[in-house]
Design brief:
This protein has 419 residues and is of the alpha+beta class. It contains 12 helices and 17 strands.
Length: 419
Amino acid sequence: HGSMAVAAPLASHSLLLRSDHAQLALPCFPNVGLRSFCSHLYGGHQSSSMLSALTACSAVLAAAVRRRRHRCATVVHAGGINFTVGTWNTLCPAYKRIRLPQGKGRESENATAWQTRHEAIADRLLAEQTRDVGLDAICLQEYWVRGPEEYHAIYKDRLEAAGYEVFVLPRSEVWGTERQDGLLTAVRTAGAGSGARLSVVDSRPIVFEDCADRVAQLVHLRLFDDDLVGDILLINTHLLFPHNVNSTVIRLRETHKMLQFVQLYIDSHGLAGVPIVLCGDHNGSSSGNVCSFLRARGFSSALTLARGELTADGAVTHLDHNGVAKGVDFIHVRPGDLSTALLSDWRPAYYYMIAAKLQERGVGSQKEAFDFFRREAPETEDGLKLSLESFEEAIASLGLTGEGTVGLTKPEMEELFTS
C-alpha cells in the first residue's frame, strides 16, 4: 500500500478546508429499539413509510462496492497552520504470500524478506522528516503485533527514537480467530530539530466487536504554533476486506460504530467544532458506499481537495493479493466549523434488515413477529417474554449471523436485544 499525506490548516477548533462538491444525503432512520420494533413495523399507516425507508436503506447497505484503479500520494497546501499526516497499510508479513524454496508460503517464514521490506517502509516514513514538511503523525495498518522483537524495533523503536509517541492496538478476537495484526499510530511530540508542535491529550481504542475483529484508534491531539492552539481528533482504522456481497454492509456497520464513538467522545469532552482527520484502509473505492457515507457526514478526501475529483478517481494506492491495482487507502478531513453531528447509530439499519427478512417469511403482524423471536420459549409467571437466547436463535434463522452473512456477533446481537 502506498502512503498519503495531508497538510491541513487549523485555527483553534476550526479546520479551514473547504469543499464545494455536493454532499450525498442518506435516509434518516428513526431511532427505534427492539422493544418498540414490532409495534413500529406493523403500526398501520406507518407501514408504507417504513417500507420506503427500508428500500432506501437496502440500496445504501447492500450495493456492491465498485472497484477502480487508484493512486493517492499528495499533500494539501494551504495558508495558516499545517498538520501533516501519512497513512500506510504495511501488509503484515503473516499475510503476505511469497514463494519459498520449499514452495508457497508467507513472508513471516523468511526473516530476510520481511526485514528488508519493512526497513524500506520505515526508511521512507522517517525520510519525510528531512524535508521541509515532515510528518506530524503516522497511521499504519496491518502492523504485525504478534511479530518478533526485531520487527517492533523497525517501527516502534525507531519512531520513538525520532521523537514520536507510539500507540499500538491489536485487533480484537471476538470472532474466535487469532489475529496477527493491528494498528499503529505515531505522533511526533519531541525530537531535536524536529519542529514538533503536538501533544497527545488522550488516546482511545474503538473496538467494533464484529465478525472481522476490526478496530480503530482515536488520538486526541493538541497543536501549538506560536500563540495559536488547536485540537484535532486523529482516527486510524482498517475496515473489512470485501470477501463477499455482505462485506459492504459490515464495513458500513464498522463506520457507523466508529463515528458513533467519536461523536460520544466529542460530546463528553466538550469538543464541539473540533476538526477530524480520518486515515486508513477502507477496502472500498472513493465511489463506494463507505466513502459516500463519509461525504454525507461532512468528510472530504484530502486527495480530492488537493488534486480534484478526476485525479482522485484515477488514483492507485496498492496492489491487492491478486495483483489488482486499487485505490482504497484514504485520508479524510472534516472541517471544524460544521454544525451537523456525526451521527451514527448502527442499530436502526439492522432493525430494518430484520424487518425485510421477516417480510420475506410472511410475518405480517406484531404478534407474529413477537412469536417468531420468542421461538419455543415457555410462558412465565410474568407472561410472554423474549430471551436473549431465543433472539439469537431467531437472528441465526434469518441468516444474519455466521459465515457468509452480515456476521452479527454475540455482543452485537446482545446490543440489538437490550436497546
